[in-house]
């Protein structure tokens, strides 16, 4: 009964507190990754573990396992005085919900895109029994869906900036919110600066959808003929072998190195995830 009374008094944390919490956690994960890379360089074992250390995901899983997974606050949550809570049910989220939320945040978009790619491969398989019309329709639908998933995630973030609830889709699906429990309590009004950022984010999403409709769907199997015999626009030496979703060609090593430091197309500055670049054969 005492626990129930306590959660009735809890209020939802502000967007600024949630953002600061995530930023502090991200900083710690990056610092942890850098320390591991330095350690591997000292012992001379970096080569065999390169795929492991190139991504922040393994370090995020380790970090959140020992914090949220064990029922503890993360460093960011402790710094801002917030805790994970199911405000609707007025209770602490279950361990299962916390773990599912972390897994969705780390792998949700990548897994969904990988499933869609595998589905597209099966549709285009030579032994597929689908009619050419059905194959063309499904290819267009899946390609458009792959393009809309990052936009949908951006829309969700814009709604968070405006209304202050559920920073990630994983948190929304598992019903996990944040409650302010100690420290200076901000005013109940939503920050107009973040609300303006939310409007700008939603406007950006609308423009992206409009741009995608004007440019047509991105089909990775086709590359502009005029780009076939060009050289990589980054190193100006090698023949381009890899395409971005926006259709620009580079060599694989140059493009992956670029995206590891900046997730944008080197030419048009379109947002590009490293998992969405495609190695194109027979250029």
From TrEMBL:
Transcription regulation keyword on record: no
Q: Origin, by domain of life? A: Eukaryota
- List keywords of the entry alphabetically: Membrane, Metal-binding, Peroxisome, Peroxisome biogenesis, Protein transport, Transferase, Transmembrane, Transmembrane helix, Transport, Ubl conjugation pathway, Zinc, Zinc-finger
Q: MF terms per GO, please?
A: ubiquitin protein ligase activity; zinc ion binding
**RING-type domain: residues covered:** 232-269
- Localization terms from the record: Peroxisome membrane
Q: What EC numbers are recorded for this enzyme?
A: 2.3.2.27
Show the Pfam families listed in the entry: Pex2_Pex12, zf-RING_2
Annotated metabolic or biological route of this protein: Protein modification; protein ubiquitination
Principal place of residence: membrane
> What family is this?
Belongs to the pex2/pex10/pex12 family.
- What's the name of the protein? RING-type E3 ubiquitin transferase
